[in-house]
Amino acid sequence: MTKSSEESGAASPTARAGAHVRPAWSGYALIMAACAVLALGLDQLTKWWVESTMTLGQITDVLPPVLRWHYILNPGAAFSIGTDYTWVFTIIMVAVSGFLIYLMLKVRSLSWAVALGLVLGGALGNLTDRLFRAPSFGQGHVVDFIALPNFAIFNIADSCVVCGVILVCLLTLRGTGMDGKRDVPHGSAAGNDGAGNGAAVTDGAGNDAAANDGGGNDVRGTGAQDSRNGEDK
């Protein structure tokens, strides 16, 4: 058997196996999409329930004095911010949602998929209100109903966005990228192996180079010196 035939024979099983492997991003994209759909569905379901069972302005105690339902319509952003700029927030939410959908194809981490899925689902939940609720398309008022003491009234979509952003911040602080890999400081990798031992360093001629063995002792390579001693003998 020739060398070329051997190489083709060795490569063919790998090629056949790879033909059945789905793209790496597909599973994480589905997880992110599932989280987004779950957040969007829960948000819209709770808003429908509030509109069906409560009147505008009604307050219902749930766990007094910590939690109560307070049905309001919010023309502003999350937590009733910027109530005079409804159309601006609609444009922002469209842009954010589009960017998150783009990131869906790039995520390679389960944690990032969940975090971005929550943000996407929350953004789509409030965007749905902006587009399809009164008073007009793109300027619809968002249904808010969750009230806490000394805090703004919000909804499930707002909660999902906040939780997702917190997860994103934690992943960023840990140095975990969207590919699932953690950033390693340049200084910590130099001269250390995975067990924390010093890595041996030698030049091209085999001259002395300092290193640490497993016990932390200093070990110096003497390849060139040993060679010269052998020649003297």
Written overview of the protein:
This protein has 233 residues and is mostly helical. The chain has 7 helices and 5 strands, in the order H-H-E-E-H-H-E-H-H-E-E-H. The chain has helices at 3-18, 24-53, 86-104, 110-132, 156-173, 186-189, 223-232; strands spanning 59-63, 67-74, 142-147, 210-212, 218-220. Strands 1-2-3 form a 3-stranded antiparallel sheet. A hairpin with a 3-residue loop joins strand 1 (59-63) and strand 2. Helix 3 packs antiparallel against helix 4. The chain is globular. Mean pLDDT is 78; it is low at 17-22, 198-202, 208-212 and 219-225.
In short:
With 233 residues, this protein is mainly alpha-helical. It is built from seven helices and five strands, in the order ααββααβααββα. Strand 4 (210-212) and strand 5 (218-220) form a beta hairpin.
Summarize the topology.
Layout: H1 3-18, H2 24-53, E1 59-63, E2 67-74, H3 86-104, H4 110-132, E3 142-147, H5 156-173, H6 186-189, E4 210-212, E5 218-220, H7 223-232
Proportion of beta-strand residues:
5-15%
Share in helix? 40-55%
Shape: globular
Number of strands: 5
Given helix and strand content, the structural type is: mainly alpha
Q: What's the multimeric state? A: single chain
Output the helix-strand order.
Answer: HHEEHHEHHEEH
Q: Can you count the helices?
A: 7
| pLDDT < 50 stretches | 17-22, 198-202, 208-212, 219-225
Mean pLDDT across the residues is: 78
Strand order of the largest sheet: 1-2-3
CA radius of gyration: 30 Å
Q: Tell me about the largest β-sheet.
A: 3 strands, antiparallel
Distance between the termini: 49 Å
